[in-house]
Design brief:
single chain; about 210 residues; mainly alpha; Arc Repressor Mutant, subunit A; Tetracycline Repressor, domain 2; 2 domains
Length: about 210
């Protein structure tokens, strides 16, 4: 098999996945997540039902299709932090930048998408799993970055605090969006809240997991 053939095959897979995701999102927004079946998504995407489940084993992941990006985000930010920068400082910097960008990964998804999530107990539960998975991965990264001994609870404590702040701010973005605030108003309020929240962690985590200067 040539590299060109492999490249075309991967491109086809990406296009199929994007088509399924786009058709599913359209149906979910029109009718509500709980009112759409996998078979209806398959029909709209013009693929077999098995094709849908091959790309998205869980129906919830059709709506929340950024699982890997979401779950890895905090650990990736910590891994890529600057010399002399603590984990807290890196996460604060990255979050404020994401607010300025109105990044959908932190919750800027628009009122229709936010309503779709909050109206579905299944999606709310799946999103909670995303946050839990993200906190676990962050704890693992902090343990590795600090050379913590096996069983050391400190990385998990730090991850729980940092994860809780990100979870709270995510929920605040959804809440304000559903209350009818526009993106600019949501961003202004959440930027203020983020500074308060991260500052509250400064006494305990300001000097934790600081990357050594080069």
């Amino acid at each position: 098999m040539t590299e060109q053939t492999m490249g075309l095959r991967e491109l086809k897979k990406r296009q199929t996945r994007e088509n399924i995701s786009n058709q599913a999102t359209r149906l979910f927004l029109e009718r509500g997540f709980d009112n759409v079946t996998i078979a209806e998504v398959a029909a709209a995407a013009q693929v077999a039902k098995m094709t849908v489940t091959n790309y998205f084993p869980r129906k919830e992941d059709l709506a929340l299709d950024m699982h890997d990006v979401f779950v890895r985000l905090l650990a990736t930010i910590v891994r890529e932090r600057e010399p002399g920068e603590s984990a807290l400082a890196a996460l604060r910097r990255a979050f404020l930048a994401a607010v300025a960008e109105r990044n959908p990964v932190i919750g800027f998804s628009g009122p229709a998408f936010a309503r779709m999530i909050m109206d579905s107990p299944a999606l709310v539960a799946r999103l909670r799993e995303f946050h839990d998975d993200r906190e676990k991965l962050l704890g693992d990264r902090l343990a590795e970055e600090t050379g913590a001994a096996p069983g050391d609870i400190l990385p998990r404590v730090a991850a729980a605090q940092l994860g809780a702040v990100h979870r709270l701010l995510f929920e605040e973005i959804l809440r304000r969006t559903l209350d009818g605030d526009g993106d600019d108003a949501v961003a202004a309020a959440v930027e203020r809240d983020a500074r308060i929240a991260f500052d509250a962690l400064e006494p305990s985590l300001g000097d934790y997991a600081v990357r050594p200067a080069r």
